[in-house]
Amino acid sequence: MSALFAFLHHAAAFALVAALAVEFVLVRDDLTLRRARTVQLADAAIGVSAAVVLVVGFLRVFYFEKGSAYYFHSAPFLSKIGLFVLIALLSIYPTVEFLSWSKVLRQGQVPVVSAGKLRTIRRIIHWELAGVVVLLLCAALMARGAGYFG
Fold first, then answer.
1. In sequence order, which residues have a C-beta less than 8 Å from that of residue 109 and are 6 or more positions away?
2. Which domain holds residue 76?
3. What is the pLDDT confidence band of residue 148, given thresholds at 50, 70 and 90?
4. Does position 16 have pLDDT exceeding 90, yes or no?
5. pLDDT band for position 63 (50/70/90)?
6. pLDDT, mean over the chain
7. Does 149 reside within a domain?
8. H, E, C per residue of 89-138
């Protein structure tokens, strides 16, 4: 069972990163109707993947791996949680913007988004991707037992 949950956790994490990369690429050029709809789908995939990562990750911590006492005494694990929260908070602005396009998209129109707002969204997604890279470093350190203070 532990291997199944490890697989689910990693598959969701890879899906999250892939959807985030797709979103980043899609907001680099001018929006089209199809591109805007795909951005919304990618953003939804990010949300679902993040939820799966979080739920399955905590199930692994509490039931399938070394136990919560171990993980909550691991600096890399605590850093991973902090980074995950930071990335989630960063994602709020783009998600709210993408959701605001729904009415216009249902009418078959392309959302009008200023160049400045798209630059801000790209910058935020770039920071999210950078945060994921640091989170992966923390995961590798945690897997090797670095930073355990228990």
1. 33
2. 2-143
3. confident
4. yes
5. very high
6. 95
7. no
8. HHHHHHHHHHHCCHHHHHCCCCCCCCHHHHHHHHHHHHHHHHHHHHHHHH
142 contacts 76 by C-beta, under 8 angstroms: yes
> Is residue 106 included in any domain, yes or no?
yes
Gap between the Cα atoms of 109 and 104, Å rounded: 5
User: Shortest CA distance to 87 belongs to which of 5, 27, 19?
Assistant: 19
Domain for residue 23, yes or no? yes
Residue 122 lies in a domain: yes
**Which pair of tokens denotes residue 111?**
């959302």
Within 8 A by CB and 6+ apart from 67, the residues are 61
Quickly state the pLDDT bin for 145 (edges 50, 70, 90): confident
Q: Residue 22: exposed, middle, or buried by beta-carbon count in 10 A (0-12, 13-18, 19+)?
A: middle
Count up the domains in the chain and report the number.
1
pTM score, two decimals?
A: 0.92
| 121 Cβ contact list (under 8 Å, min separation 6) | 27, 93, 94, 97
Residue 54 token pair: 């979080």
